[in-house]
Structure formats: C-alpha cells, structure tokens
Amino acid sequence: MAALGLVSAVGVVAFGWPLFAGGDSSLSAHAQDAPWLFAALLPLLIGVVVATISDVGLDAKAIAMLGVLAAAGAALRPLGAGTAGIEPMFFLMVLSGRVLGPGFGFVLGAVSMFASALLTGGVGPWMPFQMLAMGWVCMGAGLLPGADAAARSRLRPNAAGAIRGRPELYLLGAYGALSSVLYGTVMNLQGWPYIGGLATGVSFVPGDPVGDNLGRFVAYCLATSLGWDLPRAVVTVVLSLTLGPAVLKALRRATRRAAFETPVTFEPTER
Questions:
Q1: In 3D, which of 50, 52, 94 has the Cα closest to residue 69?
Q2: What is the pLDDT confidence band of residue 242, given thresholds at 50, 70 and 90?
C-alpha cells in the first residue's frame, strides 16, 4: 500500500535524520520540529484510512469499531502510567493489529496514542513520534504470518493459512515482547540527539560516523530505558497469553459484524 509506505518513510526520516547530520549542523534548531511532523502525519493517516477502505471495503460500522478500540487503548494507557514499564495498552494494540490488518492497525496505533495524549495531558514534541512508533507496532502485528483472511490486503495477497490456538498466542507473545523493546528503543532515538550534558560514552556527537553514534546509542538505551522496556515486554507477554483467547475471539466476532472485507455477492432469483 503506497500510503502506508509513504507514512512509514516519513517516520524513518523523522527518527533517523540526526544520525546523518553534519558536524556543523544546528540540531537544536530542529528540536521543536514536532508540530511540522504532526501536520504532515495527519493527512498521511487519512490517506492510509482511505486506501485501506478501498482495499478491503469497510463500512461505517468498521470505522466505529476502530474508534472504540482507540478509545479502549487510550483508557488502558493511564492504568500503568508507564510505571516500571507496566503498560497494558500494548497487548491490546498487538492483538487488534493482528485482527484488523496492517493498514487499519497502523491507524489504530497512531490514533490511540493521540487520544491517550489528550486524556493524560501528555501532549508534547514526543507525541507525533509516539503515534508513528505505536502505528508500526500495530502494523507489524497485522503483517505476522497466518492472519485472518479478513485482515489480508494487497500487502499480503499470498498470505498463508490461518494460525490459531496456542501457536498463535505464542507468536503474538513473542512479537509483543520484541515490539515492546523496539518501541522504547525507537522512542529513545527521538530525543537522544538533542539531550545535552550526557557522558561522552553515551552522548550523540554530530558529524561522527553512524556506527560510532549507534554504539553510543546502544549504551544509552542500556543505561536508561531497558529497565522500562523489559517489564513492558513481560506484561505484554503475560496479558497476551492469559487474555489473548478471549480478546481475539471478541475482536474477530466484532470484525465479522462490522463487515471487514465481506464480499458482496448477488444470487440470481429463481422464476
């Protein structure tokens, strides 16, 4: 899907461009670029929604379901408030992305983070980056092998048969653990180049080789956020394995009623 590829490309550039900045570049002048990124992100999200609707033919009930899931995700986020990585929102985003597919999964993750920021007062320069990162988490869940036929799109026209039961839960648990750590890592990349006063072993040095800066970045993540990322991964795995069967069943029932990719057929009338 071109719209999904475009918004992801914008996100990669937004997160990673400081690594390639020259030594004479003024990074501090770009530290407040978040409003511009947010302004660019909104029309791209709308484009993803329109393209996904075109791909799978969703109706108003499906859009309403997307809003309900986004509200549920936003409501779950304050329960842990990020304390020691206890964030139950992640397991719902992973399971929802699995059922909804990559297109609507990306939109769900981004909209959920936007709604939770408004709910918790967490609006700041980090918000559009959080929207992108959570969108990628949900999109990745939708791209896992063995998803529902209803979640398939032109991104995966030759997807394998559906995976169900314990194998699916283990797959989602493993992905949830990995994405929980990667989310924290990517979000570190958003703020790390602009933080001054760090020790030279973990600070960003404009103009240095990318490999050297990446080594410092890994050291920075190990020293700062890993204590939050690992508990987040554990919570996501535990909730996915314990609540996953019931949540997946409810989501799949709701998507069927919302007519996710329900083919329209016309039967000839008998005379």
A1: 94
A2: very high
